[in-house]
Amino acid sequence: MNNFEYSNPTKLVFGKGQISKIGQLMKDKAGEGAEILVVYGGGSVVKNGILADAEKSLTEAGLKFIPFGGVHPNPSIEKVYEGIDIARKNNVKAILAVGGGSVIDTAKAIALGVPYDGDVWDFFLQKATPKTALPVAAVLTIPAAGSEQSIRVVINGNGRKLGIGTPVIRPFVALIDPEYFFTLPQNQIRAGVIDMMSHIMERYFTPTKNTDFVDGQAEAAMRSIMKNGLIVEKDPKNYDAWSQLGLAGSFAHNGYYSLGQVEDWASHGMEHELSAWNDHITHGLGLAVVTPAWLEYVTPKNPERVAQFAVNVMGVKPQETPEKTAEAGIEALRKFYKEMGAPATLKDIGAENVDIHKLAEKAVMIPGKLGNFVPLKAEDIEKIYALMR
Ligand code: NZQ
Ligand code: ZN
What we know:
By secondary structure, this protein is α/β, with parallel strands linked by helices. The protein has helices at 22-30, 44-47, 50-60, 77-89, 101-113, 121-124, 186-204, 212-234, 239-252, 266-277, 283-298, 303-312, 322-339, 356-363, 378-387, and strands at residues 11-14, 35-40, 64-68, 94-99, 136-140, 152-157, 160-165, 173-176.
C-alpha cells in the first residue's frame, strides 16, 4: 500500500425531506442575504417539484437566488461561460446545483471560472491549475456520477470531453434524498448503476499490492450496487434499494475506495471519447460497452486480480486457472449489464461507424497513455475498441 493523505470535507445530508435544510446550509457558507446561482438541467426538477422545494428553503433562509436552467447531459463549455457571466454580473457568492453529474459539473466549472482571469477551458487543457473556486453545494437527483462528493469535473468542449480533479471544487454539501430517484427514466437508472460500479472498478483494478482492507469494502460495495440495481430496474420506487444506491454511488467516487492505491481510469478515458464524439451517448451506457472489452484485453497481464473480482464480486466459482476464472467473471459482468438492460456493442449505442483509430489517438493526446492497472498506448486502445464491435 502507498502513503496517502485524505480529506473529504463534504457534509452529507441524507434522507427523506432533508431539502428543507438547504437554505440554512447555503447561508452558513455564503452569508446573510447572499446571492446564489441555482443551476439545473432540462426541466425534470421543475416537473417533479425538487427545484421549487430548494428555492423555498433558500427564500426561508433569506437568500436571493438566480435560477439557471438548461444544462444538458454531457454538459457544454458554452453553458459554463454563460453561467460565469451571470454569476459575475450578480456578485454570486455560492452555487447550488440541483441535478445529476452534468448539472453539478457545470456548477463546478462555473465556480472555477468566476474567480479566474483567463479562459476556464485552460484548466481542462491543463494549461493552468485551479487555485480557488466559489463554494458549490449539490442536491442530487440521480445517483450515478458521484460528482456530489468528488473532486472531479468533466465538460464537453471543442469536440473533446475533458475532466480534471482538484479539491477546490469538492462540494461543501451533498444532499441526497432517495425519493428524488423515483422519477428517473429507465435508461438513466441503468446508466447510473453501471457508472457508480465503474467508479469502484476504476480503483479496484490497481497495480498496488497489499490492499486487502479497501478491497473487501470495494467488493461489498459492488455486490450491493448489483443487488440493488436489479431491484430498482424492476421496482423504480423502492426507497430501500435507492437509499443503498444513493449511498454507494456517492462513496464510490469520493476517494475512499482507493486509499493508498494507484487508480486506473482507462475505461472512463475510452468512454469519454465516445461521448465526446456523440454527446447523445449516455456516459454509463457507454461504460457498459467499454468495460468488458477492457477487462478482456487486460486480463492476460494480471489474471489473478480479475479472478479475485470474478469470485468475490461476480460470485463465480474458481476454475482450473485464474485466466478461466477471470473469463467466467467477465461473462458474468456482461450478463449483469444485460439484465440491467444495458447496451453491449458499439452498434447498440449507434457508434458502429466511429473511427476507432482516431478515437484511440485522441484518448492519449493529453495524458500520453490511459490507465495504470495496465498502461495502454493508442494501439492498445484501438484494439480494445475493436473488441466492442
Ligand atoms: O436535464 P434533466 O431534465 O434534469 O434530466 C436529466 C438528464 O436528462 C435526467 N434526470 C436527472 N435526475 C432526474 C432526471 N429525470 C427524472 N427525474 C430525476 N430525478 O437524467 C438525465 C441525465 O442527467 P446527468 O446529469 O447527465 O446524469 P449523470 O449524473 O449520469 O451525469 C453524467 C455526467 O457526469 C459526468 C459524465 O461524463 C457525464 O457528463 N461524470 C462526472 C464525474 C464527476 N464529476 O466526478 C464522474 C463520472 O465518471 C462522469 O464522467
Ligand atoms: Zn463515470
